[in-house]
Amino acid sequence: MRNEKEMMNLIMNTAREDDRVRAVYMNGSRTNPNAPKDIFQDYDIVYVVKETASFIKDKEWIKRFGDILFMQYPDESPDYPSDVDKSYAWLMVFTDGNRLDLTVKEISHAKENVVEDSLCIILLDKDGILPQIPESSEESYLVKRPSQAQFAATCNEFWWCLNNIAKGLWREEVTYAQDMLNFVVRKQLEKLLSWKIGLMTDFTVSVGKSGKYMHKWLSKEEWDTYLKTFCCADVDSMWDSVDIMCKLFVDTAKYVAEKGGYVFNQEEADNCLLFLKKVRTLSADADSVL
């Protein structure tokens, strides 16, 4: 596997030798001083160019970076339409295990992007076209203090969407209930836990994508409880996970409300919990929910 020095030399020498490339910057975990270092870290590289068309047209030029095991052209996906005149990317995993996410950005678009992401580091600027930027930091990714409206909306979304999980489990529509549980309701709990961590740290940390670093600040008991909210595709185990999730949500919401000066709607929580309890014990031939 090529080491970091070898990869960066290849990336930078390619940019220096190609007149179409006027600047280079990097972002992602390799520019984050707090990110753990390991063999799976991507090289997130942006080439700043006058135009993108010639790069897109030449399907062979990216082979200079190594033998490609598999890759993706994200801007070619019909599911994610993009303005390829401004930005175009190649996501590549090489046969030696390295991954390079390489994007070419038109100059004006790059100028906006480089100031929006606090993890950017400018590696090369042939013409002095990029603005001065602060030292790389997690500033853009820190947990942000919520307003009362945001806190209330997150709680309401959590409790409201649980009714969809309840009816899905009663109907034994496991895939629907799993979707609601993991992609809607869980996100509200994740947000609440991140706010708790924010209050514990004066909002000076990032919990990472999908809360992957939350374990650094939560107690072992809290983290273990959170992990128990991930369940198998079985109705009973899913109900058990919902119960655990609700208790953790209430405990966390009360903490955030007390420490942050927010109002927690206990009545809303109690009513939803009553509804969940009723539905879980509802017979399959019931003719009324309550």
Number of domains: 2
**Per CATH, what is the topology of the largest domain?**
Four Helix Bundle (Hemerythrin (Met), subunit A)
User: What is the ordering of alpha helices and beta strands?
Assistant: HEEHEEEHEHHHHH
What order do the strands of the largest sheet run in, or round the barrel if closed? Answer: 3-4-5-2-1-6
State the CATH class of the largest domain.
Mainly Alpha
Q: Looking at the structure, what is the overall shape? A: elongated
List unreliable stretches of 5+ residues: none
Question: How would you portray this structure in words?
Answer:
The protein has 290 residues and is α+β, with helices and mostly antiparallel strands. The protein has two domains: 135 residues, Beta Polymerase, domain 2; 139 residues, Nucleotidyltransferases  domain 2 (Four Helix Bundle (Hemerythrin (Met), subunit A), Up-down Bundle), CATH 1.20.120. It is 44% helix and 14% strand. The protein has eight helices and six strands; from the N terminus they run H-E-E-H-E-E-E-H-E-H-H-H-H-H. A six-stranded mixed β-sheet has the order 3-4-5-2-1-6. The mean pLDDT is 96.
